[in-house]
Design brief:
This protein has about 350 residues and is α/β, with parallel strands linked by helices. It is built from 11 helices and 10 strands. Helix 8 links the parallel strand 5 and strand 6. Helix 7 packs parallel to helix 8. The radius of gyration is 20 Å and the shape is globular.
């Protein structure tokens, strides 16, 4: 009888691994996360529990009854009408039909609406159309209905935006100029985030999602945090979810600070602190999947980061388990065998409040 079980690599490749190899990868994964973030790794008992989840012979697994959590989404309804290259199935339907199908056929806990570009900058000039669309859909939907997109600071650099491109300055060694243009772009971004949220609030917006914050570095995250602070100051009852783009904040600026905390280099247990300090209601934690390592290795890292963030935070922590994050393989249609194991592990071992 073989002692091998089916699992996958971070790119989705299905492979057979010895149980001992999976155990070793779990240990290496949690040690990697613990060393990088200076947080406790998983105990031997928890590593064995994770091993049991990864080696369960079932096609898919789930949490024990009573351990269910709320599921939020970042553009999940787009999967119905977008193409395969975007992780969708290409069904011919409008955004209202997609939201209602997700809510009523899939039993979604929350639903969402977003611009097809999924960034806030393109929303500003068409805000009236988005307000009308959001309002009409909200009159038909029942589940909490978010409006979401990425801050996406990169859109504010030339040739697409009004600010000089910091990459060009950095290539010339002009660091001060590169930092200055990033902060100028961050001001534009913050204003747009507040503008869109404020206008949507006028038609009864039930929640705003700043998804993948920090994708263009620490200035990107700074703009999102400042926007949250400003929005909650004028609209304290508008729920705001802020999700980061990875387990490590890239220091593209290097000196950006929020309330005295330097953002570059923050890991999840510190990311959650600045997010809650800004006034956000939910922190979205993201951990990048290494496609050249196994899912057990990647998932052990994700669980380690998650538990540390949950222990430090006072607001709900929802882990991003999309394509290539949170231990999920990097595929447009992630396989359910690994997605279900990721979900169970992050909830029961990582103590995530939601996914």
């Amino acid at each position: 009888m073989t002692n091998k079980v089916f699992t996958r690599m971070g790119d989705g490749e299905r492979l057979l691994m010895e149980v001992s190899e999976i155990r070793d990868d779990i240990q290496e994964g949690t040690e990697d996360a613990a060393q990088r973030a200076n947080v406790p790794g998983l105990s031997r008992e928890d590593q064995e529990r994770l091993l049991a989840i990864m080696t369960d012979p079932s096609r898919s697994v789930s949490v024990a009854p009573g351990n269910e959590v709320v599921v939020t989404d970042d553009g999940g309804t787009m999967s119905f009408y977008s193409g395969q290259d975007g992780g969708g199935i290409g069904v011919s339907m409008g955004r209202m039909q997609a939201v209602l199908t997700y809510e009523r056929a899939c039993g979604a806990d929350t639903t969402s609406l977003g611009h097809s570009d999924y960034s806030y900058k393109p929303v500003k000039p068409i805000i009236n159309f988005e307000m009308n669309e959001y309002y009409n859909i909200s009159q038909q939907s029942t589940a909490p209905f978010f409006y979401g997109a990425q801050p996406n600071l990169g859109l504010y650099y030339r040739p697409d935006g009004p600010c000089d491109n910091p990459s060009e300055f950095m290539a010339l060694g002009k660091i001060d100029e590169a930092r200055q243009t990033q902060m100028e772009a961050a001001d534009h971004l913050r204003e747009d985030l507040v503008f869109v949220a404020s206008n949507l609030a006028e038609v009864g917006c039930e929640g705003i999602n700043f998804d993948t914050s920090g994708s263009a570095g620490d200035a990107d995250l700074l703009a999102a945090l400042q926007a949250v602070r400003q929005i909650k100051g004028k609209l304290p009852d508008l729920p705001v979810m802020l999700g980061c783009s990875g387990e490590f904040v890239l220091g593209m600026h290097g000196g950006a600070e929020f309330e005295g905390t330097r953002l570059a280099g923050l890991y999840p247990q510190d990311q959650v602190k600045v997010v809650q300090a800004a006034g956000a209601d939910i922190f979205g934690l993201a951990v990048s999947t290494n496609s050249s390592r196994s899912v057990p290795w990647n998932l052990a890292r994700a669980v380690t980061f998650t538990r540390a963030a949950v222990q430090e935070g006072r607001i709900p922590v929802h882990v991003n388990v999309g394509m290539g994050v949170g231990g999920v393989p990097m595929l447009e249609q992630p396989p359910v065998d690994m997605v279900s194991r990721v979900a169970k592990s992050l909830v029961e071992l990582g103590k995530a409040d939601g996914l």
